[in-house]
């Protein structure tokens, strides 16, 4: 099923905003455990999904498909951030 343009635009906006959030992060000193950072990132993804859930348009199936795509994209964006955080932890 092809996504509606309005939902594609929302996904694009959400990805840009999420990327800004990730780029603004300053790793804490003292650092939090890796598991805690993973939990925080998962919480951020869930926050974005819940926020954009109310803005998606179309039939329910269309909205669910768009939300799944947004979640996949946000998870993909968060992966390099977590790799970078793991490297940060190893520096201690």
UniProtKB/TrEMBL annotation:
<keyword id="KW-0963">Cytoplasm</keyword>
<dbReference type="GO" id="GO:0006457">
    <property type="term" value="P:protein folding"/>
</dbReference>
<dbReference type="InterPro" id="IPR015317">
    <property type="entry name" value="A_Hb_stabilising_prot"/>
</dbReference>
<keyword id="KW-0143">Chaperone</keyword>
<dbReference type="Pfam" id="PF09236">
    <property type="entry name" value="AHSP"/>
</dbReference>
<comment type="subunit">
    <text>Monomer. Forms a heterodimer with free alpha-hemoglobin. Does not bind beta-hemoglobin nor alpha(2)beta(2) hemoglobin A.</text>
</comment>
<dbReference type="GO" id="GO:0030492">
    <property type="term" value="F:hemoglobin binding"/>
</dbReference>
<dbReference type="GO" id="GO:0005737">
    <property type="term" value="C:cytoplasm"/>
</dbReference>
<dbReference type="GO" id="GO:0050821">
    <property type="term" value="P:protein stabilization"/>
</dbReference>
<protein>
    <recommendedName>
        <fullName>Alpha-hemoglobin-stabilizing protein</fullName>
    </recommendedName>
</protein>
<dbReference type="InterPro" id="IPR036468">
    <property type="entry name" value="AHSP_sf"/>
</dbReference>
<comment type="similarity">
    <text>Belongs to the AHSP family.</text>
</comment>
<dbReference type="GO" id="GO:0030218">
    <property type="term" value="P:erythrocyte differentiation"/>
</dbReference>
């Amino acid at each position: 099923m092809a996504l509606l343009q309005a939902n594609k635009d929302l996904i694009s906006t959400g990805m840009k905003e999420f990327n800004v959030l990730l780029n603004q992060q300053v790793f804490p000193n003292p650092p939090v455990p890796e598991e805690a950072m993973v939990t925080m990132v998962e919480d951020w993804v869930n926050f974005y999904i819940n926020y954009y859930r109310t803005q998606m348009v179309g039939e329910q199936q269309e909205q669910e498909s768009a939300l799944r795509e947004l979640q996949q994209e946000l998870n993909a964006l968060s992966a390099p951030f977590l790799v970078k955080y793991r490297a940060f932890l190893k520096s201690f």
